[in-house]
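__Record contents__

***
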Amino acid sequence: MAETIEVSYEYTDTFGGEANYSWVQRGTVTVPANASDTAIVRKVKARLGLSGVRCRRDDIGDSIALYPADSCTVVFIG
């Protein structure tokens, strides 16, 4: 059986471009241990209903921040 890892995410609103946390949706996704960052992002976006939504992606150390277009929200993955 292939090894898997759990990757956590936080989806929240922004204010002035910064995470605001007036609401937040947290969770985890299970992916193969050798999954690429792109595969992880796709799985998280699918879980949040953001498949097909363009996002600006910022790599911040060992985490990823996604800023969906035309939305005052951010998704932190890592």
Remarks:
- The mean pLDDT is 95.
- The longest strand covers residues 18-32.
